[in-house]
Write a structure and sequence with these properties.
- Chain A: This is Peptide/nickel transport system ATP-binding protein.
- The complex is a heterodimer of chains A (about 325) and B (about 325).
- Chain A is α/β, with parallel strands linked by helices.
- Chain A has helices spanning about 55-60, 85-90, 95-100, 105-115, 125-135, 150-160, 180-195, 210-215, 230-235, 240-250, 290-295, and strands spanning about 5-15, 25-35, 40-45, 70-75, 75, 90-95, 170, 200-205, 215-220, 225-230, 300, 305.
- Chain A has an 8-stranded mixed sheet with strand order 6-7-8-3-9-10-12-11, with helices on both faces.
- In chain A, helix 4 (about 105-115) packs across helix 5 (about 125-135).
- Chain B has helices spanning about 50-55, 80-90, 100-105, 110-120, 125-140, 145-150, 160-170, 190-205, 215-220, 240-245, 250-260; strands at about 5-15, 20-35, 35-40, 65, 70, 75, 95, 175-180, 210-215, 225-230, 235-240, 310, 315-320.
- The radius of gyration of chain B is 21 Å and the shape is globular.
- The chains are: A alpha/beta (about 325), B alpha/beta (about 325).
- Chains A and B meet through helix 7, helix 8 and helix 10 of A and helix 7, helix 8, helix 9, helix 10 and helix 11 of B.
- Bound molecules: adenosine-5'-diphosphate (2 copies), iron/sulfur cluster and magnesium ion (2 copies).
- One adenosine-5'-diphosphate binds near residues 44, 45, 49 and 281 of chain B.
Chain lengths: ~325, ~325
């Protein structure tokens, strides 16, 4: 079966200066990234800030052109697809709904806008149906974004993303700015939408507990590379990559007995300009040895994971 | 008797707005013993930051602050003057913020920023102040601290900047450290390093710590005691083990239930969310502020004031039905 989302060997670099008078350098934001998501499944994409999650998201959405690689959504190449087709296939939900919701427009207008823009009919009826679908009372159609709570604004953003009937929803940290009580409301909504509409989802988050709850399988990124991928159960029960293990250990649970993880990482933070030979995690890795930095680390199968680490056993 | 580093009763903070008086802190009691870590937790907009900034005397002039008692590091500040507070600030009491970037001046060297306060307050010479800065930077895990003094903030990563902020807060050898969401902007790996550091500092220096967070994982990892804040009041105060094992206030229960826990919460199950939102704080709130969102609310919840059920060691719950909440 054709996967609903397929990324093949994506690479994206930025050229920038580290300081005003510094020479331009190449920053590899995403490298060698391949992903597949089957219809109706949810992929969790995790990793520290700056590891390339949002860049990968923009590329999937066709909003950013990769330096190389192929993106197919429902078997069609996104690079050559007309925008009108693309927006009916794949839609985003971002962390900060305020950025995409014009504050001087009413909710009615904001939710209906994509349909207006792409020649849909019955806009009013459709907006009504969408508000109902995302659990917003119909009376809010006349409100402005500023009158809504953070959770309600995120529901508006979801309604807007769904009004064109896409088959894929890409959520980039959709609950990261929300309180846990509201986060739970949005997670419940996404779960029920996925079931009701048969949506395929990518869920990007730095919160592993939330990803564990929503995702069928999880890809872990580090400095632009996928370093591990596995079914959610396997990843949480038996992570193979040293970085995944550190990440899991650092995820604090609401359990006073759990305490803080032992310090295992070097103090150095990830350096996005680091030379791209060998393992990028090596400078911080508790299991590192010389060959890790000297030899290119390829993805390989280990137990139920795909892992990029020669030392993982 | 345990020595109290902070003892506040009935703290109120009101801010005039164009829509009326915003009663953001509506009678908060906070006590922190020497060497204790108290976590203040609650949803955003509950008044946590205003509570902290009013303790530090850093509120804008138009904010109205009152309290029945305000004692800090052994001094009675109930009828405080700004001058009296300013003297404590940067010495016995220090504060660190969520965003180290905004708290560090990008145009001054790390050395300048760390030494300025103690040179003024303690009349240390430059070399004495620099020696202490080196000691503190070393303490917070900044490698090669002497060489770092001449560098500017932009040369450091987010995690390092937060360490420098902590070093800066430690310069005056405070007895009480107030940290407002100190790890919220950081990656989890850096977060656990910073929390470990705060725990070590507290043990080594006998610091008392008031840590504000909305993250119950952080609370579980670092708190001795927890104060759960809702709509400007403390809804529940309890030792950390008891709070997580048997929360008694419906709000505390709701917050804990809403977090998915890997391996415990069945994947894809509906999470018990708290319906609705934090109420607006303009004007008076009568009765329990949580009752619109509370699963067990009844008519008696509208009675004002809400009774406080107290237990040993300063524990309390403000809920008329607290006895009915099952774990
Ligand atoms: N427009 C841009 N110009 C230059 N660098 C960028 C740009 N967008 C992102 N980056 C860099 O690319 C890397 C990946 O960023 P991003 O995809 O936003 O990561 P994440 O979403 O995982 O935090 C980071 O080092 C970031 O600084
Ligand atoms: N300087 C200010 N002027 C007006 N309103 C404020 C100010 N500071 C905070 N508030 C309001 O007071 C309430 C409590 O804020 P805050 O103490 O920052 O909450 P928390 O830290 O718990 O998120 C919020 O409704 C906030 O919008
Ligand atoms: S390749 Fe080496 S350095 Fe990289 S994660 Fe594996 S053990 Fe660590
Ligand atoms: Mg991002
Ligand atoms: Mg705050």
């Amino acid at each position: 079966m054709i996967p609903m989302i397929r990324l093949t060997d994506i690479r994206k670099t930025y050229r920038l200066r580290r300081g005003m008078f510094a020479p331009t350098e190449e920053l590899v934001a995403v490298n060698d990234l391949s992903l597949e998501v089957a219809k109706g499944k949810t992929l969790g994409l995790v990793g520290e800030s700056g590891c390339g999650k949002s860049t990968a998201v923009s590329i999937m959405l066709g909003l950013l052109k990769p330096d190389r690689g192929e993106i197919e959504i429902a078997g069609q190449k996104i690079g050559t697809m007309p925008v009108a087709d693309r927006v009916r296939l794949i839609q985003p939900v971002f962390q900060n709904p305020n950025a995409s919701l014009n504050p001087v427009k009413r909710i009615q207008t904001l939710v209906g806008q994509p349909l207006q823009l792409y020649g849909g009919t019955n806009v009013d009826a459709e907006v009504k149906r969408m508000l109902d679908l995302v659990g917003l009372p119909a009376r809010l159609a006349d409100a402005y974004p500023g009158e809504l709570s953070g959770g309600q604004r995120q529901r508006v953003a979801i309604a807007r993303a769904l009004i064109l009937g896409p088959r894929v929803l890409i959520c980039d940290e959709p609950t990261s700015a929300l309180d846990v009580s509201v986060q739970a409301q949005i997670i419940n909504l996404l779960l029920s939408l996925k079931k009701e509409l048969g949506l395929t989802m990518v869920f990007v988050s730095h919160n592993l507990a939330v990803v564990e709850h929503l995702a069928d399988h999880v890809a872990v990124m580090y400095l632009g590379q996928k370093i591990e991928e596995a079914a959610t159960d396997a990843l949480f029960a038996d992570a193979c990559h040293p970085y995944t293990r550190v990440l899991l250990a650092a995820t604090l649970l609401p359990d006073p007995q759990a305490g803080l993880p032992e310090q295992k990482l070097g103090a150095a933070a990830a350096d996005p300009f680091a030379a791209h030979r060998g393992c990028l995690f090596a400078p911080r890795c508790p299991a590192m040895r010389q060959s890790c930095v000297e030899d290119p680390q390829e993805l390989r199968t280990l137990r139920e994971s795909l892992v990029r680490c020669e030392r993982a056993v | 008797m345990t020595e109290m580093m902070l003892d506040i009763r009935n703290l109120k903070v009101s801010i005039p707005t164009d829509r009326g008086l915003l009663n953001a802190v509506r009678g908060v009691d906070l006590q922190i013993a020497k060497g204790e870590t108290l976590c203040l937790v609650g949803e955003s907009g509950c008044g946590k930051s205003l509570t902290a900034t009013s303790i530090m005397g850093l509120l804008p002039r138009y904010a109205k602050v009152t309290s029945d008692r305000f004692e800090m590091v052994g001094q009675d500040l109930t009828t405080k003057t700004d001058a009296k507070l300013a003297k404590l600030r940067g010495r016995d009491v220090a504060m660190i913020f969520q965003d180290p970037t905004s708290a560090l001046n990008p145009t001054l060297t790390i050395g300048r920023q760390l030494t300025e306060g103690v040179m003024r307050h303690e009349k240390l010479s430059r070399s004495e102040a620099e020696a202490r800065a080196i000691e503190m930077l070393d303490r917070v895990g900044i490698a090669n601290p002497a060489a770092r003094l001449t560098q500017y903030p932009h040369g450091f990563s987010g995690g390092q900047r937060q360490r420098i902020m902590i070093a800066s807060a430690l310069m005056g050898r405070p007895k009480l450290l107030i940290a407002d969401e100190p790890t919220t902007a950081l990656d989890v790996t850096i977060q656990s390093q910073i929390l470990t550091l705060l725990g070590e500092l507290q043990a080594d220096l006998g610091l008392s710590l008031l840590l504000i967070t909305h993250d119950l994982g952080v609370v579980a990892a670092i708190a001795n005691d927890v104060a759960v804040m809702y709509a400007g009041r403390i809804a529940e105060r309890a030792p950390v083990a008891g709070l997580f094992a048997a929360p008694r206030h419906p709000y505390t229960k709701g917050l804990l239930a809403a977090i998915p826990v890997p391996g415990v919460t069945p994947r894809g199950s509906e999470l018990p969310a708290i319906p609705g939102r934090v109420p607006g704080l303009i004007g008076a709130l009568r009765g329990c502020a949580f009752r619109d969102r509370c699963a067990i609310a009844g008519a008696e919840c509208a009675h004002d004031p809400v009774p406080r059920i107290s237990a040993a060691q300063g524990q309390f719950i403000e809920c008329v039905k607290a006895g009915e909440v099952t774990a």
